[in-house]
């Protein structure tokens, strides 16, 4: 080999080494405390391990990493260095130290939902919004809407009778209507169709590439977002003229003491619809799947629900469900808990370290993303025996602390969890007492959109028992 060629190779090698270390020091500046980073691999600069994660089931990717590195490991996904955590204590630590770990979302999602929505904030503004949302969704407030939820469930079920339906799509209609009921009270029926048309266009763009050019899904979604805000403004101004008192979420947001602008109200209404609809619809879809696959559990749930009807008939009590009935459904409640655990529809969430944080001798550098892995916590044999088995009876005993967090934990934990459980209980009551169903086509497989779902949204044929 000639000397010049050798020299060329040497210089190229030096250049690559220097370039890599330059990128490394730019992306991961060294820490003054000299603490080690958690174990794991950061993969290639910028690309990181994105391809490894998305070329397989992300949950398998996490499970393999946990086996190799333990419950806390580093990675690099979608252009961001991150620390993944799968121990209940670490998840609790991250979710409860709001000043050290802030919520983080891609800018395009913020634009689409509205920058003022609750998810994106910390501090006083967030605390104020949370108080208003919790006020509307706490048990004492939602007690009064059981009958309305019941009538929405009955209408949906009647319209599916004898038809082949895609469970998830139909459940989205049910949960959308319940979300509107909790936001606008009985007025919701007036706005349902307009809001639905805009919201359905908006959601199509939610997971699209954020390219705002005419013709793209993102562009159509942003247009629908604008129209949605206009409809909401109209509703707000109509209410202002009426000077009436309302006990729904909009009433709570419009309370003068709340001090919210119209834009803040709109962003948070769109945000609550977003948080309430697909999550609950996805859980309901999984419930139908698990009940179908576990005939003895279905029988026990049906018996529990039939006994409520029987008791009402015998005592001459009004036939519709009330709040007390929904608090007396222990078997069905355990089915919901077990579904939330096995399906873990929100596999993980994101936070970002606001400063260098030391945790268990490791450094989580400022700016790094931190992902509490809910699904891995729910599927760890240390936390749940035979974790892959669907067994609602395991909830006869309370789970170990912080091992079960389907609604999150800490200052951003789900304020709608009581409403979600209520609407599921009401729905399952009418489903099991009046209908039977069978799954059509592919029975296994999971898809993510973005929530975990049975393959193809679970097509079923539903029949009235009569
Ligand atoms: C079974 C259905 C549901 C599940 C599994 C669920 C799960 C969650 C989880 C895990 C979080 C926390 C996310 C994080 O910490 O990053 C959350 C937040 C939230 N959820 Fe739910 N949710 C459900 C239904 C609902 C419903 C029905 C509503 C409204 C009526 C709702 C409203 C919200 C809101 C507003 C937040 C943001 C809270 C904040 O940032 O302070 N959710 N949800």
Automatic annotation (TrEMBL):
<dbReference type="InterPro" id="IPR036396">
    <property type="entry name" value="Cyt_P450_sf"/>
</dbReference>
<keyword id="KW-0560">Oxidoreductase</keyword>
<dbReference type="GO" id="GO:0010295">
    <property type="term" value="F:(+)-abscisic acid 8'-hydroxylase activity"/>
</dbReference>
<dbReference type="InterPro" id="IPR001128">
    <property type="entry name" value="Cyt_P450"/>
</dbReference>
<dbReference type="GO" id="GO:0016020">
    <property type="term" value="C:membrane"/>
</dbReference>
<dbReference type="GO" id="GO:0009687">
    <property type="term" value="P:abscisic acid metabolic process"/>
</dbReference>
<dbReference type="GO" id="GO:0016125">
    <property type="term" value="P:sterol metabolic process"/>
</dbReference>
<feature type="binding site" description="axial binding residue">
    <location>
        <position position="414"/>
    </location>
    <ligand>
        <name>heme</name>
    </ligand>
</feature>
<keyword id="KW-0349">Heme</keyword>
<comment type="similarity">
    <text>Belongs to the cytochrome P450 family.</text>
</comment>
<keyword id="KW-0812">Transmembrane</keyword>
<dbReference type="InterPro" id="IPR002401">
    <property type="entry name" value="Cyt_P450_E_grp-I"/>
</dbReference>
<keyword id="KW-0472">Membrane</keyword>
<comment type="pathway">
    <text>Plant hormone degradation; abscisic acid degradation.</text>
</comment>
<keyword id="KW-0503">Monooxygenase</keyword>
<protein>
    <recommendedName>
        <fullName>(+)-abscisic acid 8'-hydroxylase</fullName>
        <ecNumber>1.14.14.137</ecNumber>
    </recommendedName>
</protein>
<feature type="transmembrane region" description="Helical">
    <location>
        <begin position="6"/>
        <end position="23"/>
    </location>
</feature>
<dbReference type="InterPro" id="IPR017972">
    <property type="entry name" value="Cyt_P450_CS"/>
</dbReference>
<keyword id="KW-1133">Transmembrane helix</keyword>
<keyword id="KW-0479">Metal-binding</keyword>
<dbReference type="Pfam" id="PF00067">
    <property type="entry name" value="p450"/>
</dbReference>
<dbReference type="GO" id="GO:0005506">
    <property type="term" value="F:iron ion binding"/>
</dbReference>
<dbReference type="GO" id="GO:0020037">
    <property type="term" value="F:heme binding"/>
</dbReference>
<keyword id="KW-0408">Iron</keyword>
């Amino acid at each position: 080999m000639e000397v010049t060629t050798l020299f060329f190779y040497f210089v190229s090698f030096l250049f690559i080494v220097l370039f890599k270390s330059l990128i490394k020091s730019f992306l991961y500046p060294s820490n003054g405390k000299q603490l080690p980073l958690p174990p794991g691999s950061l993969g290639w600069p910028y690309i990181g391990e994105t391809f490894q994660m998305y070329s397989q089931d992300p949950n398998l990717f996490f499970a393999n990493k946990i086996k190799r590195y333990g419950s806390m490991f580093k990675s690099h996904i979608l252009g961001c260095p991150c620390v993944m955590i799968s121990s209940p204590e670490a998840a609790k630590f991250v979710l409860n130290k709001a000043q050290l770990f802030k919520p983080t979302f891609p800018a395009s999602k913020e634009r689409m939902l509205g920058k003022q929505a609750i998810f994106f904030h910390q501090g006083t503004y967030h605390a104020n919004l949370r108080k208003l949302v919790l006020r509307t969704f706490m048990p004492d407030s939602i007690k009064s809407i059981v009958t309305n939820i019941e009538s929405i469930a009955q209408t949906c079920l009647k319209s599916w009778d004898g038809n082949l339906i895609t469970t998830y799509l139909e459940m989205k209609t049910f949960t959308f209507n319940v979300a509107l009921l909790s936001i606008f009270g009985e007025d919701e029926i007036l706005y349902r169709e307009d809001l639905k048309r805009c919201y359905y266009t908006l959601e199509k763009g939610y997971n699209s590439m954020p390219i705002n050019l005419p013709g793209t899904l993102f562009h159509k979604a942003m247009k629908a977002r604008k129209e949605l805000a206009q409809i909401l403004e109209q509703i707000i101004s109509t209410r202002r003229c009426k000077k009436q008192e309302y006990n729904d979420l909009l009433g709570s947001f419009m309370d003068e003491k709340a001090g919210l602008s119209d834009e803040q109200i709109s962003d948070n209404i769109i945000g609550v619809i977003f948080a309430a609809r697909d999550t609950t619809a996805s859980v309901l879809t999984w419930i139908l799947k698990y009940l179908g696959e576990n005939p003895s559990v279905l029988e026990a749930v049906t018996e529990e629900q039939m006994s409520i009807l029987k008791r009402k008939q015998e005592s001459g009590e009004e036939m519709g469900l009330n709040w007390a009935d929904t608090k007396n459904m222990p078997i069905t409640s355990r089915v919901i808990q077990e579904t939330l655990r096995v399906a873990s529809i929100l596999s993980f969430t994101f936070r970002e370290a606001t400063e260098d944080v030391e945790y268990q001798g490791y450094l989580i550098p400022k700016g790094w993303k931190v992902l509490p892995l809910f699904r891995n916590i729910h599927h760890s044999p240390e936390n749940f025996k035979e974790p892959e088995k669907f067994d609602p009876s395991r909830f006869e005993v309370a789970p170990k602390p912080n091992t079960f967090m389907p609604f999150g934990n800490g200052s951003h934990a789900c304020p709608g969890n009581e409403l979600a459980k209520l609407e599921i209980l009401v729905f399952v009551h009418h489903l099991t007492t009046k209908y039977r169903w069978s799954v059509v086509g592919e029975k296994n497989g999971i898809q993510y959109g973005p929530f975990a779902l049975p393959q193809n949204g679970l097509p079923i044929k539903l029949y009235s028992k009569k």
